[in-house]
Write a structure and sequence with these properties.
14 helices; Aspartate Aminotransferase, domain 2; alpha/beta; 2 domains; globular; five-stranded mixed beta sheet
Amino acid sequence: MDPKDMHPATLAAQAGGVIDAQSGGVVPPIQPSTTFARNRDYAPLNPQNTYARDHNDAVRQAESVLAGLEGGAQALLFPTGMAAIAGLFRTVPNGGRVVVQSGIYWGTTRWIRDFCTRRDVTLTEVDASDVAALAAACATPAQLVWIETPSNPWLKTTDIAAAAGAAKSAGALLVVDSTAATPILSQPLALGADIVMHSATKAINGHSDVLGGVLIARETSPTWEAIAEDRATAGAVMGPFEAWLLLRGMRTLPLRVKQMCANAAAIADYLADHPRVDAVLYPGLASHQGHEIASRQMQGGYGFLMSFVVKGGRDAALAAAGKLNLFHRATSLGGVESLVEHRATIEPHSGIPEGLLRISVGIEDAGDLIADLGQALGQ
């Protein structure tokens, strides 16, 4: 069966349909060699491989699966999510202009601000969940429009199709950070995005043991070829062991996301009714500002990431986090284990409410997770 005809669950479980021709193994092998031999006429023994910086079987296999899951033409893996972002933004010329969603992952915002300052690039930050505000920001030509939906940690939902129209009016590429949605829940390329980005460290790998980032293009273009060339020559590549682990993690991606979303929905309902919680930020709640848009552009769930504000501010939030037993107090998201983070401690300068806790919901039993939250907050 052609991988292009496979449903996401089949594509992921079959690792793109790769069988090791030499051994017959159903698991793709790891080839750790950094260089590849040529014959006596100096032709490569394998035309696809000459040097590992740009030629890596495990990376190509993982990229093929990721492109298939997103419905894209090609994917490019990077050693981290931030490396993928940097590879993309380096295509913006000095003196160019970019439009970037405000209130997104702070590491992205901080790097983009510094990059734009160094390269004399005009940066316009805008609340992209406000369709009119984004359209106004795109009234002036730009090279890139960057959105993140659902956003981290505010869980704002941006209308991808509307953003694609706005970007087109500015002559810009629309790039969507879809890390918190995964390819299972959202298909930005089908909604008009030009490129989708994931921190593969998160749910795509899902086991908190691999760093990685990926860009996936709806179609190839000169800009895409420039990104690929820059990755190869600058050396922003993923090694074979990491790519193999990533491919292994992706085999269970649809199952993990399904369970994580079910758990998150139950937890959001519980927290929304808790007397010691001021607000719950989760697109799956009907009361959430972006619920209607999320319902239109996400399928199979509303994600595993949410934030909630504890009554009593910083001290109350830190006390609750300190009492949790199943939620590990650690940075990151999207793993099989549930995590909690006090965002104001991590990024105190970004306007995050002092009482906000961000949780990444894993695959544990939902009842156990709710009981843990209950004892930490006070029943």
